[in-house]
Structure formats: structure tokens, C-alpha cells
Amino acid sequence: MAFTAYRTWVAGEVVTAALMNAQVRDNGRYLKGQDGPATFEDDLTVDNLVTAGLVDGIDVSAHDVAATAVHGAGGNTIIYSDHSNNTTTAHGAVSAATASKFVVRDADARAKFAAPGAAGDALIKGTRIALTDMAALTTDKYWKGVGGIPAEADLPGGTKEFLAIAAPNGALTRTTKGILIDAVADEAVVTFLVPQDFTTLTSVEAIFLPGETGADMHYSITTYWSAYNGGEAWNVHSETAANQDMGATVADQNLALDISGFLDVVAMAAGDVVIVKIIGSTTAIDSNFYFVGVRFKYS
Q: CB 3.0–4.6 Å: which of 38, 73, 110, 235 could bond 77 by disulfide?
């Protein structure tokens, strides 16, 4: 109900119930706030304002009437200046993680909060989050630290490789240079697992260390491969080449031979077990040599 402007009464005017109700009853209710907030057209001065003790359960002790705006209030509103001056405990505010309390920063401009316990809770320093709580990761990407913050990055690409070291097969022994092959039927083997990220074979090289210069090196090679724990016989795939001639050699200089042709790269797959066996040639051992190992390059 709105406030009704006061009448200017004239002599001899008849006072009716309607006039009295509008001028006295209704305007009184308005000023008391019984019909909604009252609007004042000028400043309001309140005498005997309570400045100590409890008002509606709130301690108003030491609050002073302010003449300037606080909390965005205009100059025509009565407010307490202590809200401006109290920077530590206004409304019972605390800097510790305390339930049902307003928050105020401490002397170091910090405030503490409880650790999150449910979806939508704010994170705080030192809180661990599950991977499921992180943003969705794009396919074929991984998390990489950038400036101390996780960011998406592309997976490493390009050609990868590893070296599988030769082992003696039979009575031969390993030396610093590798496995010495200096007689017909001497054998050395390399066994390795095709990596799980294997897609395409780049090359497979057998690395030798000739023992003489200018001689022709002869050897035989057999390869086997099969699925790892896949129900296949260990030699289900096999290739053999006898009496291979590498040509002229230089003593004590590593020599690499591409043996990719002795592996069926179409049938090979990630997780296959591969065995490469090098044998002294049945034709001739023109140059004794050491079998060092196998270099496997792939993408």
C-alpha cells in the first residue's frame, strides 16, 4: 500500500471514516513498515540508537554511526562505521577453515578453506584430484607439464629404435666385442619382443664386428617369429638364407647388414617374439667376426 499525501483540512469540513482511515490508519501502517518497505523523501535521524549489547542476537558494541558510505550505501542511509574500520572480525569473520563463518584474509592476505569433498566444491592448494575429475583428454594426446600446469600435447612421433644384444647359442661365450663366430656352425642368437606401439617396420640390421681386413665374410641366417602368448608355435614363421657374403671387411669396425628381407613384415605384429640366429657359413669362414646384436627400427 502506498503512502497517501496528507490532507490540508478546512474549517467546517466533514471528517469521514474513509478520510480518517486513509490519513491516520493507512499512513501509520506504511510508516511502521506493516505494508512493505517505507520510502523516505529526506534524511532520517534516529535518536537513542543502540550502540552496545545485542540486537537480534548481533553484538553492536563499539559501532559508531557513519557519515560516509559503507557496503555501497548512500549518504542518506544510517550505517555503522565500524564495518569499515573492522578488518579482522566483522560479523565474526575468520581466516581459518570454519563452517558457517564469513571469510576474512589474515595478515598475509591468505584464507583457508576445507578440502573439497563433493562435485562442484572449490579446489585448494595441495588437493589431489582423480583423472576422472580432469578435463576430457583429446584422442592421441597426452598431458604434458607446461609452466607447472598440465596441458595437452601430441604423442611422440617419428622413427623409434632399440638394440637387442646377441647371446651365445651353445658353447660359445660373450666377449666385450660380441659373440665370436670363427668356425663352421658356430651360432649366436638375438631374441626380442616387437614393441606394443609398433605399426610399420623401417629396417632391421644385424651388426657385426669383423676380425680381419680385406677378407670376405660369410654367414648364414635364420629368423623365427610368433605371437606372444597367442597360441602359435614359436617357429610358425621362419626365413632362412645360407652362405651370405658380406664382401670386403675392415677389422674392428662395426658393419651393419640390413636383414629386413628375412622377416615377413606383413605377418609381423606388435607383441610378436622374434629370434634372429647367425651361423658360421658351411661354405667357408674367410673372416672370423663378432655378432654384436640386432638394431630394430620402426614407427
A: 73
Nearest partner of 77 among 30, 44, 36, judged by Cα: 44
Residues 88 and 73: their CA atoms lie apart, in Å, by 21
The whole-angstrom separation of Cα 203 and Cα 7 is: 107
Query: Does residue 272 form part of some domain?
Result: yes
For 112, other C-beta atoms within 10 Å of its C-beta total 13
33 Cβ contact list (under 8 Å, min separation 6): none
Give how many domains the chain has, as a whole number.
Answer: 1
Using alpha carbons, select from 160, 225, 231, 232 the residue that is nearest to residue 197. Answer: 160
Cell of 261: 628381407
Gyration radius from the chain CA atoms:
46
| 239, part of any domain | yes
pLDDT digits (tens, 9 = 90+) for 115-168: 888 877 887 887 777 766 677 778 778 778 888 778 888 777 778 999 999 999
Q: Domain holding 285: CATH number?
A: 2.60.120.260
pTM above 0.70? no
Whose grid coordinates read 563499539?
62
